[in-house]
Design a protein that fits this description.
The N terminus is likely disordered. This protein has one domain. With about 160 residues, it is an all-alpha fold.
Length: about 160
């Protein structure tokens, strides 16, 4: 992956990866005015409703733009859920956005590895401080699991 990153002089500050602003494109959705499903089967807003949900999410997210990326990632999860951008049971989309935000200042990482620990924070309640602590613990545990998996793969490759 490092070979795919843009070249950068040693004395330069690391490149900051932009946060996705076009959420329709981020989710791989095409613009449709109506979902084409019966009202009781619609799981995600469409057309102008999606644009309004996306705009609401980005406005809430922009209010915390000066915070640390891990804090912003922790806030992205409830913002995403409250905006209704994804179906209630679909946690991967909001978690993917949060995982990108968490490593925004780390251009050598594609995303923060939450793994199974991300499920513990999706519907987490409590105060913002409690949610932040749980989210940071999930990022820490996910990174530990990812490091252990990389170690396992390195040993497996050495045995070939």
């Amino acid at each position: 992956m490092r070979r795919l990153a843009p070249e950068q002089a040693v004395d330069e500050a690391p490149l900051k990866r932009p946060v996705p602003r076009d959420l329709r494109n981020f989710l791989g959705l095409h613009r449709v005015e109506v979902s084409g499903l019966a009202e009781d089967q619609v799981q995600r807003p469409a057309g102008d409703d999606f644009d309004a949900a996306s705009s609401g999410f980005l406005k809430a997210f922009d209010r915390i733009s000066g915070r640390h990326p891990l804090t912003r990632a922790a806030a992205a999860l409830p913002f995403w859920r409250l905006s209704g951008l994804s179906p209630v049971e679909d946690v991967i989309e909001g978690a993917s956005f949060a995982a990108l935000v968490a490593v925004q200042d780390l251009p050598f990482l594609g995303f923060a590895p939450l793994g199974r620990h991300g499920r513990t924070i999706w519907r987490l309640g409590g105060t913002p401080s409690e949610r932040l602590a749980h989210t940071l613990e999930a990022f820490r545990a996910g990174a530990s699991d990812a490091r252990a998996e990389l170690r396992r793969l390195r040993h497996w490759r050495a045995d070939l």
